[in-house]
Sequence to fold (201 residues):
Amino acid sequence: MRLHGGIHSGYTQKVRIALAEKGLGERVPFVLVPTEERRGAARRARNPLGLVPVLELDDGRFLAESTPIIEYLDALFPEPPLVPTDPLRRARMHALDHYNDQALTPPVRRLWPPVTADAVAVAAAQGEIAAVFAYLDGVLGGQPYLVGEFSIADIAFMARLQMLPELGVELPPACRRVHAWKDRLAARPSWAATIFPLLPR
Fold:
């Protein structure tokens, strides 16, 4: 297997974190796909949307979309598990994964270089990001991770948390549970193994 993706792609990052959690980083090599090549005919044959990541299987077939890729890997390599067996926890994991896509990804993308935005637009994006983490502070409650056990939900937000310093975004000081959760995520070996390279300036 090989993982095709972008080095600054948050969705590629999700899969890279999952691979690191399972000790598969070297077994599943990473193939960099430059942005300008992602919409070509060859790439669309692998994913009709022309997006990354795409997992190339050993038989030459391709699997697109970060969460299905991780769930496939979790089924093949069940230890350590990244998908809860409890139906309610698994459903909440999917809901939070979707929340990351819909609530956090859009403002992060609006702040992403080389995008230039005026101060009002930057403040609006930062406010949306703060609101996401205020919500997650409540979700965490007394749990170590978003659905109790470490899962795809944590990985999805972990990929965004890794890039926030590059965007000049800090977590809201009042979100103490989120800060403790972020520290737990940053202490996992997969964090250091997959940290984003600095953005070009």
